[in-house]
Each structure stands twice: as C-alpha cells, then as structure tokens.
Amino acid sequence: MFATGVLSIPTAMYGLGAIGGSLSVLGWGALNTYFAIVQGNFRNRHAHCHSIADMAHVVGGPITREICGFLFIVAYVLCAGAGIVGLSVAFNALSENAVCTVWFAFVSCVLVVACASVRKFEKIGWLSWVGFVSVYVAVFIVVVGVTTRDRPAAAPQTGEYDLGYRVLAYPTFMVGMTATCNIFIASAGTSAFLPVISEMRVRQLPFSSFYLPLTYIRNLATTTKPYTHVWPSCKPATSPSR
Prior knowledge:
Helix 1 (2-45) runs antiparallel to helix 2 (52-94) and helix 1 (2-45) packs antiparallel against helix 7 (211-223). This protein is 69% helix and 0% strand. It has one domain. The two termini are 21 Å apart. The chain has 8 helices and no strands.
C-alpha cells in the first residue's frame, strides 16, 4: 500500500493543500483500517472465508460471490499491471541498454507471474520485506536528496521563486475527487490481508501485524510523500517519477 501511494498521494496532496491532503490521508486511512477490522473479525467468525468473494457468498449467496469475485480479480489485475509498469520503468532507468520498453515490460510480467505462482505466502514472505525495504529506502533517499538542495531543480537558479506549497487549496470538483480517490486507493488494499490471515498459526488480528503497519503507513504518507513531490518539482507540480 505504501508503494502504490508513493506517486499518487503527493500529487493529490498538492491539489488538496497541506491541511486538506493530510486530513484526507488520515481520514481515509482510519476508515480503511476500520473496514479491515470488520473484515478480519468476520473472517474469524467464518473460518471458511479466505477472500472477499467468500464473505460475499455468506452475506448474499452465489450471485453476490461471483460479482464480488469478478471485481476482486479486476482490482488485482490492475494492481499487478501497476507493478509491471513500475518495474519496467525501473529497468529502463537503471539500464543503459537500448532494449525496447516492451521487452522490459515482458520481463517484468514474467517476474511478477513467477512470484505470484507460489501457492503459499509463507514461501514468498521474504519478498514482502525486500519490496518494503527497497521502496522505503528509495523514498528516503529522494527525501534527503531533495531537501538538502538550496532550491528545487525546477526553480530559477537565481532570484525568488514560488515553491507552490499551499496550506489551503481550493481545487475544482474534478481535481478534488481525483485526489480523494487516489488517497483512498492508496490505503484500500486491506482485503489482501485475508489470505494471509488464513495461513497464520493464530488467526487473529494482533497489534504487531495489523494495527502497527497501517498506522506506520499513514505516518509515512503524511511525512515523506509531500517532500517527494512538491520540493523537487516546484510550481507547477510534476510527478516525482519524472
């Protein structure tokens, strides 16, 4: 969830302003945490539920299960696609080879499919740590790198400049809704906890594996992501991936 919001939340906070963006991150994060608690408690009462589709079957029958299952698959296909695109961009950035981006995307797809083909999460648990550490270190490097400069790279080299930092913003309806949806999606991946709970020896919602990570993600979102966007880009804002 932290990785998906690295590029989306900074732009959203620029559109909503510092206060509005921070409140939106905290509010949606708290709401998604509450939804995750409801899901976890429901799963513990119905041990045969291993996904949202199974829960939908308990609540609404087979038709509801098929509908939710389809939506669940679509959502995770989009997540997988985002991961493939991000990995191909990373290959392009790190390689000086003239290989076409399509080939990098193909290699990324093969890697994602290979990792996703493992049947149990316990076999690929180390990948979660590798992914989190790599993303966290990358964001930390960007934050340190851009905040130690005298002025943003996009700012004029001499004279005054407008950083573009706004405490309060007055976005249009489209900008506000897009920013809000991006912030919501950035912490809405808690449904993926359900298959993991199914493999836990103690199938509960302990503080160390549930509440603490979600709180940590919200804190990182409100403290690091504004710097990865506003400071390096200056006004007007651009994506930090550029």
